[in-house]
Hints:
Blueprint: H1 3-14, H2 24-28, E1 38-44, H3 49-61, E2 69-70, E3 74-76, E4 88-95, H4 103-117, E5 132-138, E6 143-145, E7 148-150, H5 159-168, H6 181-190
Antiparallel strand pairs: 1-4, 1-5, 2-4, 3-4, 6-7
Amino acid sequence: MASAPQSKVAASRRCIRAGTALPLSAIRNPDNPQTLMAFVALGSNLGNPRQTVLLAFDLLQNLSDGPLLRSALRETAPVDCPPGSPPFINAAAGLAPRPGETSRSLLVKLQFLEKQIGRAPRRIINEPRVIDLDLIAFGRQILNEPDLVLPHPRAHLRRFVLQPLKDIAPDFVFPGRDKTVVQLLTELNSS
């Protein structure tokens, strides 16, 4: 029983704290597998959302081949959710996929973590949920399959994704786009 809190503390110490941004060269070099990064958007609006997102950070660290990049936590209003939905706690994480990891295998692991944390099967689109782990980018990969689209098709339009992503990768450019996270946020703020 005493080892669980210690392992949580150890895992959180391996995480890179908010405000430590990833160098652009580490994001944009698809020829070097050591610099391949996957970005995950985290959201929670049921139970204790802050604690849930912090737990998700700890679990995501176990999927990373290096220190997990993690943003600050932000409370945001629900977007396109059923009326009466509670506010979300949103964050972003950057992880270095382990050797042999693919976007598909990482998606399966993210879905497993969602279930492990307590996410119930979806009944209504955008309903309140204990945890949501969205794979928003996997290196420079562009993919359009029924159950996996990369980069995430709406990430570049969502402030609740871009603001936390700015904490860890402000110069990231979504594959197929030509503007950085900072530039996309500036456009959202001016519209």
